[in-house]
Amino acid sequence: MDKKKVAVPLVCHGHSRPVVDLFYSPITPDGFFLISASKDSSPMLRNGETGDWIGTFEGHKGAVWSCCLDTNALCAASGSADFTAKIWDALTGDELHSFEHKHIVRACSFSEDTHLLLTGGIEKILRIFDLNRPDAPPREVDNSPGSIRTVAMLHSDQTILSSCTDMGGVRLWDVRSGKIVQTLETKSPVTSAEVSQDGRYITTADGSTVKFWDANHFGLVKSYNMPCTVESASLEPKLGNKFIAGGEDMWIRLFDFHTGEEIGCNKGHHGPVHCVRFAPGGESYASGSEDGTIRIWQTGPAAHDESDAFLANGSTGKVKVSADEVARKIEGFHIVKEEKAEEKEEATDA
């Protein structure tokens, strides 16, 4: 029997605590970028293709649970256990705004037009901040039945998606009325909810199942049982023919979207996998783990032998990327040496 070739990922070091959220920017004129949230309180920005570290956003005083980039990867947002959501300049690393909350902020998301920031957390309140008027009070939608775990905006920012940490289901809210218009029923709490790049599907992970929902009519399209409890799932963005899932068994599995058949299994993390996301072109995907590392895996056949040592911890090694490709991001960024993150032990855990 032929053995499958072992996939060798790019390993991204730098975080000193578990990595709990990952987000890829769309493809921009400067390439695409990856931001990570960690319990070490310091979100990190990386080149999405190579995993090379660009900079660290310094300012939170507690675990960072959620992070995202806007459409042009010019601004970043993060939600933290320090009761704030922050907006950052992704070119310089400067903190632009800090939005105070009354409890832990568990989730944040930019609107599709990038003018709004949506947040949710332990308070059971969805807040919509107008980034053109950051000093104005946010709009509040406060009928969430439970503590909020995930948020997203869809349908040209007319609909809010949210899930709760302590009960099943995904709720879809009409932005204008502030009312729940639909609930996607699941048995277990939804730990990951992703709107596909083309807007057709909502991918959810709950318990040991991955489900795909019609994002416009809200019907269940497919549901697959997983080999373990999964925390995160992501649909391949270009062709939509594959998806990945990761969870408590520390492995990242690749599946056929149409049949649910497992077509790949990547091992390498030393702790449960908390988040997985496909790169915008579908050529690779990233995983973040309890072990504090991010790993970037190639979707296609491994193009490298195991002798190629990939470490994306601020040095380039054998990665194929020109220095000027990310120059605009790196230039002016207040770079904080990654060693600093290793010294942090006081991060607030939630």
Q: Helices, strands, pairings?
A:
Blueprint: E1 10-12, E2 19-24, E3 33-38, E4 44-47, E5 53-56, E6 64-69, E7 75-80, E8 84-89, E9 95-100, E10 105-110, E11 116-121, E12 126-130, E13 139-141, E14 148-154, E15 159-164, E16 168-174, E17 179-195, E18 201-206, E19 209-214, E20 220-225, E21 230-235, E22 242-247, E23 252-256, E24 262-266, E25 273-278, E26 284-289, E27 294-298, H1 327-330, H2 339-343
Antiparallel strand pairs: 1-27, 2-3, 3-4, 4-5, 6-7, 7-8, 8-9, 10-11, 11-12, 12-13, 14-15, 15-16, 16-17, 17-18, 18-19, 19-20, 21-22, 22-23, 23-24, 25-26, 26-27
Strand order of the largest sheet: 14-15-16-17-18-19-20
Major sheet, described briefly?
7 strands, antiparallel
Report the radius of gyration as a whole number of Å. 19 Å
Q: Into which percent range does the helicity of residues fall?
A: under 10%
> How far apart lie the N and C ends?
47 Å
The H-and-E topology, N to C, reads as: EEEEEEEEEEEEEEEEEEEEEEEEEEEHH
Can you describe what's shown?
There is one protein chain. The protein is mainly beta and 350 residues long. The protein is built from two helices and 27 strands. Strands 14-15-16-17-18-19-20 form a seven-stranded antiparallel beta sheet, with no helix packed on it. Strands 1-27-26-25 form a four-stranded antiparallel beta sheet, with no helix packed on it. A hairpin with a 4-residue loop joins strand 16 (168-174) and strand 17. The protein is globular, with a radius of gyration of 19 Å.
Provide the descriptors you would attach to this structure in a database record.
350 residues, 2 helices, single chain, globular, 27 strands, seven-stranded antiparallel β-sheet, mainly beta, four-stranded antiparallel β-sheet, 3% helix, disordered C terminus
